[in-house]
Amino acid sequence: MSNTTILRTRGLSKHFAGFAAVQNVDIEVAQGSIHALVGPNGAGKTTCFNLLSKFLDPSSGDIYFHDQNITRMQPADVARLGMVRSFQISATFPHMTLLENVRVGLQRSAGLAHQFWRPTRVLKRLDDEAMRFLDLVGLVAQPDQLAANLPYGHKRALELATTLAMNPQLLLLDEPTQGLGHEDVEQVTELIRRVAQGRTVLMVEHNMSVISRICDRVTVMQRGQVLAEGSYAEVAGNPEVIAAYMGESTEEMHA
Description:
Elements: E1 5-16, E2 19-25, E3 28-30, E4 34-38, H1 45-52, E5 60-65, E6 68-69, H2 75-81, E7 83-85, H3 98-109, H4 120-123, H5 127-136, H6 152-164, E8 170-174, H7 182-195, E9 200-204, H8 208-214, E10 217-222, E11 225-230, H9 232-236, H10 239-244, H11 250-253
């Protein structure tokens, strides 16, 4: 983790019909870190995440990516800058192979993003790099398998491989372990740790055990505002954070 800030907000707010879902949020994400955005139900973390990934426009405040103001940019524009949200391409192509799915992600950086009609031999030059990403997520042994046939945990791995193929500088992960069984949670946690090498990850995550193991910094939200920020140990021991999680799962906070 470096001292360079890759993403920051100033006074970020979002109102819905007079209700302040997010209000005056200042966040800084360090380059090369794994940064988690957490909070009890209704804390505003999902709305904040949607603002950061440009799926919502703020009511006020600013968002900067590498010191460039991206507040009014569209999701596709910030993706071109290198900030990619996993669910933007998380619906895998079920009747394409794993290799073909990852190759779709590679086509953008290769200047072939809209050239699906090109002969297969033109796209095959991307195969070696696609295999590298499949290897990174543990799927290299089955490149010709159809995505539709993968178990759920492996589909999440394929989604991540395809996202990484877009060469993001900042990877935004929305609840990456949601809906996974214990074994798959363990695999995806290790996968995130592995793919984060040399990259920056900002994630919304509810599983505190996952956060405690892989995150460098944690921002806790409550009622649309930042309640606390620091290492996992710092926020887990914060009395205000513990109080905020009362009625949720204090056991999870101390997992």
